[in-house]
Each structure stands twice: as C-alpha cells, then as structure tokens.
Amino acid sequence: MLSDDPIPSSAANAHSVDASGDSPANGAQLLGEETERRIAWLTLGIGFLAALIVGVVYRRDWAVGIAAGAALAWLNFRWLAQGLDALVVDSTVQNSSQKPQVPIVTYFLAAFRYALIALCVYGIFKFLSIPLVSLLLGLCSLGAATIAASIYEIAKPLKTRP
Fold first, then answer.
1. What is the mean pLDDT of residues 129-151?
2. Is the residue at 14 inside a domain?
3. What is the tally of helices (H) and strands (E) in the chain?
4. For the whole model, what pTM was predicted?
5. Which residue among 1, 25, 40, 50 is least crowded, i.e. fewest CB within 10 A of its CB?
C-alpha cells in the first residue's frame, strides 16, 4: 500500500542516534551505511599504507605528513557523516511542516569543521615543519577511499545487494 508520506516512520526511527553516537539505534542497517564504514576504514588504511611506503622509500617527514593528512581526512569524514545524520533526523521529525527549520548550529558545525581542519593543517605545517604537499596528499586518501569503495559497490555480486 502506498502512502503520501515520503519518508516512512520507520525511516525516522532508523535514523535515531543512540548514546554512543552510532546510528541506527534499533539495529536495522540503512542503505549505504556499510559503504560509509568501508570508506572510513579505507581512508585510514590507504593513508597509513601510503605513509609507510613513503617513510621507507623516501623521507620520514613526508610519511608523517601523509599520515596526519589521512587522520584529518578521516576525522572530517566522521564529522560529515554525523552532521548529515543529524540533518536527516531533524528533517524527518519535521516532515509534516510546510517549511522545516534547520537549526543554525548545523550550519555553524559544517563551517567549523572546515575551519578546524584548515587550522590543524596550518599548525602542523608551521610548528612541526611537515611539508604542506604531504599533508594535502594525506587528505586525498579520503578521495581514494571513496573511489575504492564505489568500485567495490559496483563490482560486488547483485545477490549480496539490498
């Protein structure tokens, strides 16, 4: 049976956040949640593997920069996922209102996330004398992880897809 409600009430419940900050609280797995987890661990894996290789083959300070950039990329991704989860919860709670209100703190936290990442990059570059390019390459580990996870999702057998 079809309803006029674009988001079923079960979707709103599935996006509830438990005390640990993990979503969903009821144990159901949302579409794309497994891919998000895969991107998170691949970001660190690719970044730290690249740092290890660069540390052995090239220079230690570049390896530290790549590892720090990968850690910042992972942190940025986690904050982005938490922000989007909060936005989904806010919008599903207000799905019956004509003009849903997004809390101003949501916009502040999105801007603050980028400002904090930029401040960390500046501090690492300025005070620890880590090459800036190595930090930027470490930040690219998120892009590489996203591409790898997307290729995996496309290539995995259809019977394992939801």
1. 92
2. no
3. 6, 0
4. 0.70
5. 1
Report how many domains make up the chain.
Answer: 1
Show Cβ contacts of residue 24 under 8 Å, excluding neighbours closer than 6 positions: 13, 14, 15, 16, 30, 33
Instruction: For 42-88, write each residue's pLDDT tens digit.
Output: 999 999 999 999 999 999 999 999 999 999 999 989 888 887 777 77
Q: Tell me if 5 is assigned to some domain.
A: no
Backbone φ and ψ of 101, nearest 5°: -100, 125
Q: How many residues does the chain have?
A: 162
Residue type, position 149, single letter: A
Residue 21 lies in a domain: no
What local confidence, expressed as pLDDT, does residue 67 receive? Answer: 94
- As to burial, measured by CB atoms within 10 angstroms (0-12 exposed, 13-18 middle, 19+ buried), residue 32 is exposed
Residue 13 near residue 88, CB atoms below 8 Å: no
Cα distances from 88 to residues 39, 82, 112, 119, in angstroms, run 20, 10, 19, 28
The tens digit of pLDDT for each residue in 16-35 reads: 444 444 444 444 556 678 88
135 part of a folded domain: yes
